[in-house]
Protein 1
Amino acid sequence: MFVVLRTCIVAVKDLQDVEHSIEVTAETLYEAIATALAALQQDNWVGEIGQGFATVTVLVQQPPVKHEIKMKDFVSWLGRQGRSPAQVVLKQKLVRILGKTTRGDDRKG
């Protein structure tokens, strides 16, 4: 299987309504989100990111494609059982990237 890695700019607002963006390289849309969230959580300039209605924007650089995913949809998808062995492996990888938890709560965002 041929793996295509894409460079993406991932942006999300924290609970103080400050937008943060980061460039990541990923194989899938959700891997880009997980990698970006994990990196942003390590940055002390980034406040708490809500998991409810916050929107994550992913701008794919090669070729440019923009995706917006509600955090609740990402968290919900990640929490569901994979439909195929490949999806199970992908979700396990993303959980590892995120360190099993995503910061934030359902109160806002």
Protein 2
Amino acid sequence: MVKPERLTYIGLRDVDDGEKKILKDLGIKAFSMHHVDKYGIGKVVEMALDAVNPNRDRPIHLSFDVDALDPSVAPSTGTPVRGGLSFREGHYICEHLCETGLLVAADIVEVNPALEDEESAFRTVQVACSLARCCLGESLL
């Protein structure tokens, strides 16, 4: 079982009071979109790694909820909230974690093609597949 202090969230928005309490009570480090806007995605990823793996000596599991992305990027998800991560910011997270050499597992979740029209569903699936490929070492360039 993963200890809560070894978890971190990036790109949070629309967090209710109960969720905020859980994050605080369990000591889970969380970075909102405000942090991404203020510091940039590169710095936020480094701060997240510093919080959960300061010595960079432990394996990393990435669970990427596509609802962290802005709905303009990935509309076919259960909780689409405007103001999310951009296409590039999402890919940066996956690329950077892969580059650490510590990424041993990843899952891309919250893709739900049944919620949108065919074009939106296809776009969301394409983004999820692209994120998975980045986790495996594929670069956008």
Protein 3
Amino acid sequence: MDTSRFEIANFIAEAIKKDFTNLFIHCENELKWLDGIKFNTASQYRDWEWRIKEYREFIHEFTYILHTGNKPSGMKESDFKRTKPIIEALVEKGQLKSTILNIYSPTT
């Protein structure tokens, strides 16, 4: 089984290329698909459960950023930093205001 689908780096590379609407739809569809995966003994995904759950959590939390423009409180800092290039690409395309980048600035 090709597990590259569950690589966060691959998601980020694809996400950077999408416009806001297509990215949002992609995230929602991906979450629906991931939520349908079963990890029982007959599942082809059973051995990849940890990776799939980590990937799903990243997509879920990134979708929260798209919804709210805020950092998810439970998101790992390393994962949060990985979302910045996607948001920067959307700002460059004029699809998000540049002020959203303030969420990546440390608060004092």
Protein 4
Amino acid sequence: TEEAKERALAARVITVPGSQLDISRVDVPQTTIMRISNINVKTENRTAYNICKSVGTVRRLVWRASCIVDVHFETSESMNMVKILS
């Protein structure tokens, strides 16, 4: 059922005779890096970090240019990237 599917996806694992299998949605992005462009050049690193931290666990920020930053989320956030990106 749809409800059983959602429970299994929330648990991220299903048990079948003899083993446990990790499961994930097929539409989950295969990255934990998000690029933000057109960020205000006056935005401080701490401010950008705190904004990103409000949606997920941030590993680091990498500034590519004065208005572009790559946000590296922890790999533990991989299952949450759809939510983070929306």
